[in-house]
Amino acid sequence: MTTTPCIDVSKVTKTYGVLDAVHEVDLKLPAGSCHALVGHNGAGKSTLIKMILGLVRPTSGSIRVLSVDPREAAFNGTRKRIGFLPEQALFQGTMTGIETLRFYARLKGSNDEDLQALFARVDLENAANNRVGTYSKGMRQRLGLAQALIGKPDLLILDEPTSGLDPASRQNVYRIIEEVKSEGTAVLISSHALSELDSKVDEVTILDHGRLAASGTIPHLRAGAALASRIKVHAGPKQMPVLAKEFGGAFRGERFMNGTAILECPTSEKMKLLKKIMDLGVTFENIDIVDPTLEEVFAAYTNQETLQ
Q1: For 6-18, what is each residue's pLDDT tens digit?
Q2: In which band, very low, low, confident or very high, does the pLDDT at 204 lie, cut at 50, 70 and 90?
Q3: pLDDT for 260-284, tens place per residue?
Q4: CA dihedral 217, 221, 224, 227 (to 10 degrees)
Q5: How confident is the model at residue 1 (pLDDT cuts 50, 70, 90)?
Q6: From CA 176, how far away is CA 146, in angstroms rounded?
Q7: Closest-CA residue to 84 (of 160, 32, 198, 19)
Q8: Which element (helix H / strand E) includes 183?
Q9: From CA 46, how far away is CA 33, in angstroms rounded?
Q10: SS3 84
Q11: Phi then psi for 163, rounded to 5 degrees?
Q12: Region 210-227 average pLDDT
């Protein structure tokens, strides 16, 4: 049975004067999934998010968010079902953390009885009664995430959610994303931190100068970009000549040095190559399979340097 996407963007364009900030972009986000929106600064990510939130009207194309067009009056009620963390979360510094969340809970018409649990969820329970002006950047970011989670939204939009966070807090953000996904929430992440997203998202949309460069699962994007997987074979000096003799015709000689052989192949053929290696019957210390990273995928589709 086909279900209606939480976000359904079709051929959307936003023009400012003669500039297309976004040009005929498509994006679909099902419930219970996490989708990453990536691109260099100026690629159109923020403009697209603003149109999804109903803050900017598209020049052409259609957008439906939780089955409602953001341009319709009915979308005012739909906003209560959306959690949004902006890239820079700004709060009134004289208010305490708990006062801040109570304020946003009232705006969303949400019960404020569960707010203390949100502080615990983002590791801020000991700072709930402290003034926000005393918070570090990372603490304000976590407060922003707690604000976005108020009311258990059906759609969660996170713009650079791990900015300013330490490694433990970054991992907690992705744990929370997995939790809300399991509850049916759809999550859209806009991020420059591509190395974090490899195993965290279901699909990726790459924007380049306002246009859709590619969209799909990371394995699909790897295959479409014809990027190679790398098999690193770690073995002793006696095994290197065996590997060089068997595979040297397809791989450069310098790839069989210092106890490591590096063999590349299309991602779809890595298991076939691995079987050939194992069938040699020689002793190996270790074998690593390294697939192309999202950073490499991004560079391939945009013909530019990676974001970091």
Answers
A1: 999 999 999 999 8
A2: very high
A3: 888 888 888 989 999 998 898 888 8
A4: -130
A5: very low
A6: 10
A7: 160
A8: none
A9: 20
A10: strand
A11: -60, 125
A12: 93
For the record, the structure tokens of 96 come out as 């305490």
DSSP string spanning 86-125?
-SS----TTSBHHHHHHHHHHHTT--GGGHHHHHHHTT-G
| Sequence-separated (6 or more) residues with CB below 8 Å from residue 39 | 45, 206, 207, 208, 213, 302
Residue 109 in tokens: 């018409």
* Mean pLDDT of all residues in 111-116: 83
Contacts (Cβ under 8 Å, ≥6 apart) of 13: 20, 22, 23, 24, 25, 58, 59, 60, 61
Average pLDDT along the chain: 92
pTM, two decimal places: 0.89
Asked whether 53 and 70 are in contact (CB, 8 A), the reply is: yes
